Amino acid sequence: MNLDKPLDDIIGEKRKSRAPRRSRPAGGARKPSTGNVNNNNNGAAAAAPAPAVSGSVHVGDKIIVSGLPTDVNEAQVRELFQTTVGPLRSCVLTYDARGQFKGTATVHFRKAEHATKAYTEYNKRVVDGSGS
C-alpha cells in the first residue's frame, strides 16, 4: 500500500479492490445481534434515563449501559450486575483518546437470560439515586 496518497484515495482504492459482498438470504436468517439501551434490543440502567426503546425484547448476552457518571469504575458496574442479575463474562468501560471515561460500559453476561433480566430491570432507570 502506498501511503503517499491522500486518505480518501487510499480508501477509494480499497473499496474498489474488495470482492462483492454476498447478499443475505430472504427472511432475515442472520445471527441475532446484541444491543444497548439506545434501541439495539439490550440495555441496562444508567445514571440518566435512556431514550425510548421500540420493538420487542432483545436476544443476546451483551448490553451497553450509557449515561453513567464519569466517576464510575469497572468494579462498580461489575458488582452491580453480578449481585443483582447474574455472572458476567466481561465488563468493559469506554474511554476517549485522552483517557477520560465516556460514560458507557459494555457488559457481557454468561447467559442471554441474564442480559434480558438486566434490560428488564434497569432500562431507563436511575441507578445511583442522584439523577446525575
3D structure, described in words:
The model is unreliable at 29-55 (pLDDT under 50). The protein has a three-stranded antiparallel sheet. It contains three helices and three strands, in the order αβαββα. β2 (88-95) and β3 form a beta hairpin. It has helices at 7-17, 74-84, 112-122, and strands at 62-65, 88-95, 101-109. The protein has 132 residues and is α+β, with helices and mostly antiparallel strands. Helices cover 25% and strands 16% of the residues.
Question: Could you give the topology of this structure?
Answer:
Elements: H1 7-17, E1 62-65, H2 74-84, E2 88-95, E3 101-109, H3 112-122
Antiparallel strand pairs: 1-3, 2-3
Protein name: RRM domain-containing protein
Pfam family, one: RRM_1
Domain RRM: 61-132
Short description:
The protein has about 130 residues and is an alpha+beta fold. It has helices at about 5-15, 75-85, 110-120; strands spanning about 60-65, 90-95, 100-110.
Q: How does the helix and strand content classify structurally?
A: alpha+beta
Q: In total, how many beta strands?
A: 3
- Helix tally? 3
The helix content is 25-40%
Question: Which key terms come to mind for this protein?
Answer:
132 residues, elongated, alpha+beta
